[in-house]
Amino acid sequence: MTQMSLENVTMQFGPFRALTDMSFHIERGEILGVAGPNGAGKSTLMNVCTGGLRASGGQVIFNGQDITRFKRHHRCGLGIAQTFQIPTLLSSLTVGENLLAGQIFGREVRGEETGISMEDILFLTQLEDHLPIPAAQADLLTRKRIMLGAALATGPEIIFMDEPLGGLNAEEIVEFLQVIRHVREELGITIVMVEHKTRALAEIADRVLIINFGEFVMLDTPQVVLNDDHVVEIYLGKRHDA
Ligand SMILES: Nc1ncnc2c1ncn2[C@@H]1O[C@H](COP(=O)(O)OP(=O)(O)OP(=O)(O)O)[C@@H](O)[C@H]1O
Ligand SMILES: [Mg+2]
């Protein structure tokens, strides 16, 4: 069942068009991978979905409602969360306080309790032992868990993750992919993840969207997409780093 739809979404930065007529559906509960060369418009695409940017044209529909003009906090209140390539945390606060801040923000923008308990978040992110530690002292994987945990604490139905595996080593990638999988399996949350590491996408994604020069190229299963000659030419040939 469709949860979010983009209909002819365009994003214009002055004379430069970063997204052109982007149309596709995100299914409830899926893990959708998004890939494409550097500068293809992947982060821009996430931002027009989460409210970091307002699309210049077209519509973003979430659960049947047109949210194109809504601000980020309003979209968060509807159940749309985002994590960033570089963990954005409240560094002077502890790990536990970061999670609480997410929960308080979620309550504020929803106007009610969020549907996800702190117990579930701690179970999924395995942050129990880190709660009293200042976030600034945490290693990269832990910082990524905190950012995901804080996003979960807002009570989302869908999370957009921008290059969640960036900077992690092979072992940490396996570990974090497992966390992401559990978020979908245990909480039924839809995951949209931008990722350059195509092997990881092939492992975790139900479907993969490829974009290039701000345009839709292909959306299908990882097997079909990652073996497509055109995709290999525009993307894998240039940056086959996984
Ligand atoms: N605020 C902005 N103002 C002007 N141009 C922008 C802005 N944000 C992005 N762009 C341009 O839009 C294009 C797409 O950028 P975007 O960051 O979405 O790409 P990306 O696919 O996420 O790239 P990467 O793989 O490097 O993260 C780039 O050419 C970028 O320079
Ligand atoms: Mg990007």
Q: Would you kindly provide a written description of the structure presented here, covering whatever features stand out?
A:
With 242 residues, the protein is an alpha/beta fold. It has a single domain, classed as Rossmann fold (3-Layer(aba) Sandwich), CATH 3.40.50.300. The protein contains nine helices and ten strands. It has helices at 42-50, 72-78, 95-110, 118-125, 140-153, 170-187, 198-204, 222-226, 229-236, and strands spanning 2-13, 16-27, 31-35, 57-62, 65-66, 80-83, 158-162, 190-194, 207-212, 215-220. The model has no long low-confidence stretch (mean pLDDT 93). The chain binds adenosine-5'-triphosphate and magnesium ion (MG). Magnesium ion (MG) is lined by residues 42-43, 162. Residues 13, 16, 18, 36, 38-44 line the site of adenosine-5'-triphosphate. InterPro entries: AAA+_ATPase (IPR003593), ABC_AA/LPS_Transport (IPR051120), ABC_transporter-like_ATP-bd (IPR003439), P-loop_NTPase (IPR027417). Residues 4-238 form the ABC transporter domain. Keywords: ATP-binding, Nucleotide-binding, Transport. GO terms for molecular function: ATP binding.
